[in-house]
UniProtKB/TrEMBL annotation:
Residues 74-89 have a biased composition (Polar residues). Residues 1-29 form the signal peptide. InterPro entries: DUF5719, TAT_signal. This is Large extracellular alpha-helical protein. Keywords: Signal. It comes from Curtobacterium herbarum. It holds the Pfam family DUF5719. The lineage of its organism: Bacteria, Bacillati, Actinomycetota, Actinomycetes, Micrococcales. Residues 107-129 have a biased composition (Low complexity). Residues 67-129 are annotated as: Disordered. It comes from the Bacteria.
Length: 465
């Protein structure tokens, strides 16, 4: 036998010995971890995660790109403060404010429900009516879970339109954020859209005009690594010299072949289009296909009184498409979008206000609810809860607030709009698979936000050696 052959056999023999030792260790570990009472089943141990506090972040105040004196146009400053409503399955909700970066901050509120014997749920929403110089209108938003991916369907960078993306990091580590921006021409390629660092427990404000100019239709996909992010978008409109509205865009549902926008207000859209610079005052459904195939889309529009219609459209891949929503009477609507490929969606409407100006409202798509969801509706003009049933089964939904409750029948494919208490905790039960949103409609403007499902809590897992 040659020397090289002998070495190969020696190595193989050593590997075999190691394998035998590892196998013996595994068997010993299995007997240590597993149960000796039932040797016929795989050994293992059930591990229950330690209950953790629940956190969500509210959008914060209205913003302008300057200070009170109109100076320092590179830094965002707050205007007033919103009304915030909270809910929890725990004992209490603590509020704190995240820090500010050099770009300014909307002073976002961090909601924390401390852990008890189990992990709690926490929820909330904000509403603000503002009239300060060029920033006039109402904005509403959901308080959201930190996430590594958020789709913001809305915004514009045309002349007189200011769109700001707020990036809130409630974690204790740096978050590195990338913005994928699309407009009506395709994906935007611009320096500075990647590697945006957001410090722990702080917020950074990013003007969209720093990456794309003179675009009336935008969609932003926010992704992060390291710390997780809560992202919102604020848009302010000035039509020539007249304030044209303010709103906050909440994150919508991830790309899917079915999207539901549960709370859309249409009120005198024709009146909002009178005057100068009103091309973007018409109501639209905004669509974006992140894939490579065109989407064949059917839009189902329903109201609480049983009315409804459908609209067919096509959305090309990689570009933002605005579908006009003309000739619809005033009312509160839900939109159900069925697409041949995964898609994201949002809706924009406008309305005249009692001071002779206009306001705009952005309405995001929502995720299906679980069997029981806690939420809270911030106090605001004409608040309504809108529940959509996209399933094939009729549902009876119960909305409780303290000792009071109301039952709402939502048949398959229909929408129910109900008045609910504001600034109080609500418990929605019987809504498994249904979608809900809140809309506001008053003399000072329109707004809305999606009701978030409960946060997924870690459940016990079985560990095997």
């Amino acid at each position: 036998m040659s020397t090289s052959t002998a070495r190969r056999w020696a190595l193989r023999g050593t590997a075999t010995a190691v394998a035998v030792i590892v196998a013996a260790g595994t068997i010993a570990a299995a007997h240590t971890i597993g149960t000796t009472e039932d040797p016929g089943h795989p050994a293992g141990r059930t591990v229950t995660p330690v209950p953790a506090a629940a956190e969500r972040v509210c959008a914060g105040s209205a913003l302008r790109l300057s200070d009170d004196a109109g100076n320092d146009a590179t830094r965002a400053s707050t205007i007033g403060s919103p009304q915030i409503a909270t809910a929890t399955t725990g004992d209490r909700v603590d509020r704190s404010e995240l820090g500010s970066a050099s770009t300014g901050s909307s002073a976002p509120t961090l909601l924390t429900a401390p852990a008890g014997t189990t992990a709690p749920q926490v929820a909330g929403s904000s509403y603000q009516s503002v009239s300060d110089g060029d920033v006039v209108g109402v904005g509403a938003a959901s308080c959201d879970d930190p996430s590594q991916s958020t789709w913001l369907v809305g915004g514009s960078t045309e002349t007189g339109r200011t769109t700001l993306v707020t990036l809130s990091n409630p974690t204790d580590v740096n978050a590195t954020v990338d913005l994928t921006i699309a407009d009506s021409s395709g994906t935007v390629s611009a320096p500075g859209t990647t590697g945006i660092v957001v410090a722990p427990n702080s917020q950074k404000v990013v003007p969209l005009s720093g990456f794309v100019t003179d675009q009336g239709s935008t969609v932003v996909h926010v992704t992060s690594s390291g710390g997780q992010i809560v992202a919102h978008m604020q848009e302010t409109v000035v039509r020539t010299l007249t304030p044209g509205g303010f709103d906050i865009v909440s994150g919508g549902a991830s790309p899917s072949r079915t999207q539901v926008i549960p709370a859309v207000v249409l009120e005198d859209a024709e009146g909002a289009q009178r005057g100068e610079d009103t091309a973007d005052a018409a109501p639209v459904l905004r669509l974006y296909v992140p894939g490579s195939q065109a989407a064949r889309v059917t839009l189902g529009i329903t109201t609480a009184d049983g009315g409804g219609t459908t609209v067919d459209a096509t959305a090309e891949p990689g570009v933002v498409t605005d579908v006009p929503l003309d000739d619809f009477p005033d009312g509160r609507y839900s939109f159900t979008i069925d697409s041949s490929v995964p898609i994201v969606a949002g809706a924009r409407t406008t309305t005249p206000t009692d001071d002779g100006r206009t306001d705009l409202g952005w309405f995001a798509s929502a995720q299906p609810l679980s069997a029981t969801t806690v939420t809270a509706v911030a106090a605001g003009s004409g608040a309504r809860l809108n529940v959509v049933n996209p399933t094939r089964q009729d549902a009876t939904v119960t909305v409780r607030s303290g000792d009071d409750s109301q039952k709402v029948r939502v048949t398959s494919g229909s929408t129910a709009t109900v008045k609910v208490p504001t600034a109080q905790q609500l418990t929605i039960s019987g809504a498994d698979g249904l979608v809900a949103g809140v809309s506001y409609q008053g003399d000072d403007g329109i707004a809305g936000f999606p009701v978030r499902p409960e946060t997924e809590v870690s459940s016990p897992v079985r560990i095997y050696p």
